[in-house]
């Protein structure tokens, strides 16, 4: 089961590059607990959409590359280390991220916690405000 879950996490992470949250949501349980550290946690598909729409949906997509460096798992838990490349306007940010994903009995991700340094993201969010108003 661990290898199958590792593949699902990799596929899920890579789906975020496609600018189609509907596709990405298929990997998540309806009651998913999502905590994009150091921001506030959210619950469910609506909460995930609220956080991600301005970053990875349609023409708002700022995610240029998802480079998964390492993946490990034990039981229903998968963790990965990745380097995400984000860009808007003249600003590009390479963001190191550690992700923890837990699966429910239906094979859906029901806990997704990402850990990164918000200071690294600050130039991107400042440029978003400038470009998008």
What value does the Rg take, in angstroms?
14 Å
Class from helix and strand fractions: alpha+beta
Number of helices: 4
Helix content: 25-40%
Q: Name the poorly predicted regions.
A: none
The proportion of strand residues reads 35-45%
Largest sheet: 6 strands, mixed
N- to C-terminal distance: 45 Å
Oligomeric organization of the protein chains: single chain
Question: Which strand order does the major sheet show?
Answer: 2-1-6-5-4-3
Count the strands?
6
Shape: globular
Q: N-to-C SSE series?
A: HHEEHEEEEH
What does this structure look like?
With 133 residues, the chain is an alpha+beta fold. 35% of the residues lie in helices and 42% in strands. It has four helices and six strands, in the order ααββαββββα. The chain has helices spanning 2-15, 21-25, 44-56, 118-132, and strands at residues 28-37, 42-43, 63-74, 77-88, 91-103, 109-115. Strands 2-1-6-5-4-3 form a six-stranded mixed beta sheet. A hairpin with a 4-residue loop joins strand 1 and strand 2. The protein is globular and about 45 Å long. The mean pLDDT is 95.
Summarize the structure.
Helix content is 35%, strand content 42%. By secondary structure, the protein is an alpha+beta fold.
């Amino acid at each position: 089961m661990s290898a199958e879950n590792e593949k699902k996490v990799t596929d899920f992470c890579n789906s975020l590059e496609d600018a189609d949250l509907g596709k990405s949501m298929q990997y998540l349980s309806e009651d998913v607990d999502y905590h994009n550290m150091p921001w506030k946690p959210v619950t469910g598909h609506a909460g995930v959409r609220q956080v991600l729409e301005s970053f990875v949906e349609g023409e708002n997509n700022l995610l240029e590359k998802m480079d998964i460096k390492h993946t490990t798992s034990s039981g229903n838990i998968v963790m990965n280390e990745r380097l995400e490349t984000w860009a808007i306007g003249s600003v590009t940010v390479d963001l190191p991220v550690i992700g923890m994903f837990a699966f429910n009995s239906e094979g859906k991700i029901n806990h997704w916690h990402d850990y990164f340094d918000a200071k690294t993201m600050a130039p991107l969010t400042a440029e978003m405000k400038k470009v998008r108003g």
